[in-house]
Amino acid sequence: MLAGFEKLVEEKILAAQKNGVFDNLEGAGKPLNLEDMSRVPPELRMAYKILKNADCLPPEVELKKEIITAEKMLANVKDEQERYKCMKKLNFLIMKFNTMANRSVRFEIPQVYEEALMDKMVSQGDAGK
Fold first, then answer.
1. Angstrom distance (rounded) from CA 23 to CA 17
2. Quick one: which H or E segment has residue 78?
3. Per-residue pLDDT at 14 exceeds 90
4. CA distance linking residue 117 with residue 89, whole number of Å
5. Domain limits of the chain?
6. Cα dist. 92→64, 65, 95, 111 in Å?
7. For residues 82 and 72, what is the distance between their CA atoms, to the nearest angstrom?
């Protein structure tokens, strides 16, 4: 911006403040709801904002929501067979997320129910003998 133009704008803003133009604005005294778009490249920010306003989520985010829903569902299931099905689905979703994210293994979501599934499968195998 030109230095003279900046000075003109600043003078107009100060005059408006002095005359009370900004006194009764909607939302006065409330915190601003600013979105942090610093991690999004500048050329993609408008597209991201449009997609967000249209409730379109990236596949990774939708999958993460599914994982959270499956975890909540698993916490409420009492029946052993239903619990097994939920664990199996949850592990599949986690595996899908980890492969989709294409990132370091250090940051993968752990398949927390893998051990319980293995125990279940072993105990079912022993029951068949």
1. 8
2. none
3. yes
4. 11
5. 59-123
6. 12, 14, 5, 9
7. 13
CB 67, CB 97: distance < 8 Å = yes
Amino acid 123: pLDDT:
72
pTM for the model: 0.47
Task: For residue 109, give the 3-state DSSP assignment.
Answer: coil
**CA separation for the pair 74, 85 (Å, rounded):** 9
pLDDT on residue 102: 64
Residue 98: strand, helix, or coil: helix
DSSP assigned state of 129? -
d(CA 46, CA 52): 10
Q: What angle do CA 69, 74, 83 make, to 5 degrees?
A: 140
Q: What is the pLDDT of residues 40-94, one digit of tens each?
A: 888 888 888 898 888 887 788 888 889 999 989 888 888 888 888 888 888 888 8
3-class SS string, 22-66: CCCCCCCCCCCCCCCCCCCCHHHHHHHHHHHHCCCCCHHHHHHHH
Instruction: Supply 125's token pair.
Output: 């195998």
Structure tokens at 115: 């051990």
